[in-house]
Amino acid sequence: MTRPPAAQATNYAEVLDFPTKRLILIGVLLGLFLSALDQTIVSTALPKIVADLQGLNLYAWVTTAYLLVSTALLPIYGKLSDIYGRKPVLMFGIAVFLIGSMLCGAAGEPFLGNLFGGGMMQLIVFRGLQGVGAAALTSIAFAIIADLFAPADRARYQGLFGAVFGLSSVIGPLLGGFLTDNISWRWVFYVNVPIGLVALSFIATRMPILASGLKPKIDLLGSVLIVLFSVPLLLALTWGSDSVYSWTSPTILGLFALSAASLVAFLFAEARHESPVLPLTLFRNPTFTWSVIARFLIGAGFLGAILFLSLYLVNVKGVTATAAGTATIPLTMGIIAGAIGSGQVASRVGYYKFLMLGGLAVATVAFWWLSTMNVDTPYWAVVARMVALGLGLGPALPLYTLALQNAVKPYEIGVATSSGTFFQQMGSTMGAAVFGAILTAGLTSEFKANLAEVQRSAPFALQSQIAPFGQAEGGTRPGFDPATVRAQAEAGVREAFGRQRDLVTRALRERDPAAIARLREDERTPENVRGLLSQLSAAGQVPAGSETANAASEQALRGALASLSQAETQALAQTGTTIDRISRAVKVSFANAISRIYLISILIGLAAFLVTLALPNLRLPKRGEKSGEDRPQVPVAEV
């Protein structure tokens, strides 16, 4: 691809005054906030949505549809913005996002009838439409920073954009819960409209087109192939990790095969197109290559940290699912502080690689610290771990984007930036799938080990209540509610002893030697009852029906029934203690399995650190100095 004449490209960093830049920045931040908020605000409303629209079997698709579409379109929007300018593509994305939001809020309403098969399918389709718009917001917002500000100033503003994601993870669950509980779940989607209209007004009235001056052919084939590569891959990973299909099922294997074939075709097509949707020449740039690999790894580690911290808080520390969303606020605050702080330091110092390495070192230590959590770890110590991890991961959000933008040509900033986001989201999805499979396997072994002893020492009537927890696979383990299990266990104890009374009564009154022998040998029969049954060993010497035989049987029966009542009372008393032991065993199982996940995360952190070591240590250009390939890229001494 030939370089456009200098006259065709406007240096907006120099042309626009700061008040105009500030207004544009507000509009873009609002648009990005919409996209980031929508990933968190819906989660707390989903139970109510599913109940109203009656689609529990489609629960996961509300999130999956959004993720699949938005991830697949990221590189396409980045390339389109390089060709046609950021403004029209961004405005298109916001408009589509708002239309999708309004339709999501209307899902299941009578005026939509049976469109797409009903309310839940309507919501899934409209969430996909939201994803079409959200991809433009996510991919272009970070690129606009490079258009508006000189390389020396970008770092401080990139930190603000990184902080938006952290802020949305705090506000989203709170706002989603409030709107669902006090107004309607539909306002979880409608709330996007006023924010989006404000963003549109800022962008429409204040933002220039931000065009690169290029007018190449559109890479339609590459756009189709990248969708055919990413969507089946993400779908296979999602279905496999959620146990919708087994990993070896024809469906999953077919999706992987389609994705692999599309990738080969994509690489072949991109190598021959004059303006590919993802220029393979970018991978000749070591800064781009190492940055996207690092972002892929960080995406896996970041999502794993969020997912499994919430799981630990719910299943080990006992907070509610809604509270778990807000309980990760310390992690979010650490991310915001790390993102903004690293951007400010990089802007002043002029170098960013040492900040990346320092952040990854802190994150890796934080992963090790998280791996030491157990069932007795106090909450304040969990909070300290969250803050440390946030401070380590925070610099990753803005600085790798800054590195990408500083290393590529001005008219490649859009596609380079969106490609970095694409690789990070792919890493998040793959990381969630791999970690989910590891967690399921870990929980299965932990449950069997930790509940085996509890089951052996529990009253026999309670053993049947414990069995489902010790025998089920980790991914299909029944939920554990101590009050419910206690009630079920007590009912089971009474039912079991009732059966024992019936068996003992029938055996003694009928003087059935075989039945008496079976009861005497049954381990579930209390020890003192066995002794009474043994006293009837001479029963065969007394004619059945004689007064002596009848008196002996009735006396033995009264003693056996009294012993059974005493044993039942003891078993009911033991139930509470056993339930406590089960509860602790379940918590220990979760804590141990999640700790293993963080041990693996240490390896991811170390891999990201080593990849970043290979990153050229480029200096941020000073004001008035050219960036990217417009100036020599000479690494300074390695950090």
Automatic annotation (TrEMBL):
Coiled coil: none
Pfam families: MFS_1
Gene3D superfamilies reported in the protein's UniProt record: MFS general substrate transporter like domains, Multidrug resistance protein D
Localization per Swiss-Prot or TrEMBL: Cell membrane
Superkingdom of the source species: Bacteria
Transmembrane domains' residue ranges: 23-46, 58-77, 89-108, 128-150, 157-175, 187-208, 220-240, 252-271, 292-313, 319-340, 352-370, 382-403, 597-615
This protein's name: Drug resistance transporter, EmrB/QacA subfamily
